[in-house]
Specification:
single chain, about 120 residues, mainly alpha, Serine Threonine Protein Phosphatase 5, Tetratricopeptide repeat, 6 helices, globular, TPR-like_helical_dom_sf
Length: about 120
């Protein structure tokens, strides 16, 4: 299967209200990764950021890490209209990661920098 077909299938699962929220969250995170990396599609930071946020809303807490990295400026570029780094938005994203160890480590790093 090629990336384009895979992305269409993932998009269909994401739109399927009968699919479980954990599955839809994982699908949103996979689409976000593809959009961020330009894997099988043109890189689209706006889509990546939105899909990570959607994944997080659907309960996929590990998406908070990638979203936080975006707001910290670790993606090396930003979506049109966004100003990065934005420590407040990064902190907010990491906090939404709950007990995710990677998010906790980034929160500690942000706190250490602000001292």
């Amino acid at each position: 299967m090629d990336y384009e077909t895979g992305h269409v299938i993932l998009g269909d699962v994401l739109k399927d209200d009968t699919a479980s929220e954990p599955l839809r969250g994982l699908v949103a995170a996979a689409l976000a990764d593809s959009a961020r990396l330009g894997r099988g599609m043109d890189a689209d930071l706006e889509m990546a950021k939105d899909m990570y946020a959607t994944a997080l809303e659907l309960g996929h807490r590990s998406a908070a890490y990638n979203l936080g990295l975006y707001w910290e400026g670790h993606w090396d570029r930003s979506a049109p209209g966004d100003v990065v780094p934005d420590s407040a938005k990064a902190t907010q994203a990491y906090k939404r990661g709950g007990s995710n160890a990677k998010c906790a480590a980034r929160l500690d790093a942000l706190r250490a920098r602000s001292r």
